[in-house]
Structures are given as structure tokens and as C-alpha cells.
């Protein structure tokens, strides 16, 4: 039986505030997406609260409305993707940041598809592995760490 919650964690050499700005701003997300799934997001959609919705265009050209369901500034953000105009299908992306010092943060990235209801999305959900989450963490670290 395959796990329906996939999680990866890494310590990144940057402040939680700096890292969070890259996660909470959808326009920056395609630069570090380890799934190679995100193509574009319009600027000006920075997430500020539970209930916010931000819109992304995927590499295959479809549009996703992401419903923010968890939010704590600088610490935690999670959203549930949905096709435009529809309710979320039941999967969730979560980012949790734990400051370890002024320029060190443990970042945990989770993909939870335990409540996924759309059978057409199951193959893609199963394809999201720890490796793809670690790729996002690695790309994010490259962008935010001081050189």
C-alpha cells in the first residue's frame, strides 16, 4: 500500500522570513518547483491569510485555483488546488518553517493526497515522491541562501 502523505525536510541557510517570501508569493513558485508542474502565476497574489485563493497556470496549460487552508506568517502555509471554478479535489501542499537561528531554518514540505476524490488525479498524486519534494527544497535553498 502506497503512503498518501509524502514529506521531506531540510535545513536551509536563510531566515524563515526570507524563505517564506518565496513560498507565499505564487509568482516565485515556478522558479523552485521540483515537480516541473508550474508554468506561471501573475504577480501581486502574495498570500496573507486562510481563505486567500491564488491562481497558477500549469505547464500543460491548465489553470489551478489554490485555496489557502492553513496560514501562519513566516511559519506555515498550506493550500488545496482546484480546477478553475470548482471545489478542491482533496489534495494538499504544506510548507512548515522552523527557525533554528537568524540564518538557519528547517523547512518541511508535505504533499497529502489522503483525501483525494478525483480518480483522474490519482496517477499524478502517486508520482509525487519524496524525491520531487526534495528537489523543490533544493531549488528553494539555491535561491534563498546567501552566496
UniProtKB/TrEMBL annotation:
A Pfam family of this chain: Polyketide_cyc2
Matches recorded under CDD domains: SRPBCC_7 (cd07825)
Gene3D superfamilies (UniProt xref): 3.30.530.20
Domain of life: Bacteria
SUPFAM superfamilies found in the cross-reference section: Bet v1-like
Protein name: Polyketide cyclase
Organism: Mycolicibacter minnesotensis
Amino acid at each position: 500500500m502506497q503512503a498518501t502523505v509524502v514529506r521531506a525536510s531540510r535545513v536551509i541557510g536563510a531566515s524563515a522570513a526570507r524563505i517564506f517570501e518565496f513560498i507565499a508569493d505564487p509568482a516565485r513558485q515556478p522558479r523552485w518547483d521540483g515537480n516541473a508542474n508550474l508554468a506561471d502565476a501573475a504577480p501581486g497574489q502574495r498570500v496573507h491569510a486562510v481563505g486567500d485563493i491564488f491562481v497558477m497556470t500549469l505547464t500543460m496549460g491548465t489553470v489551478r485555483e489554490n485555496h489557502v487552508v492553513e496560514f501562519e506568517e513566516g511559519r506555515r502555509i498550506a493550500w488545496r488546488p482546484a480546477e478553475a471554478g470548482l471545489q478542491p479535489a482533496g489534495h494538499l501542499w504544506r510548507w512548515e518553517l522552523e527557525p533554528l537561528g537568524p540564518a538557519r531554518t528547517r523547512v518541511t514540505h508535505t504533499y497529502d493526497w489522503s483525501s483525494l476524490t478525483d480518480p483522474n488525479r490519482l496517477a499524478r498524486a502517486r508520482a509525487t515522491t519524496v524525491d520531487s519534494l526534495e528537489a523543490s527544497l533544493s531549488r528553494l535553498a539555491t535561491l534563498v541562501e546567501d552566496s
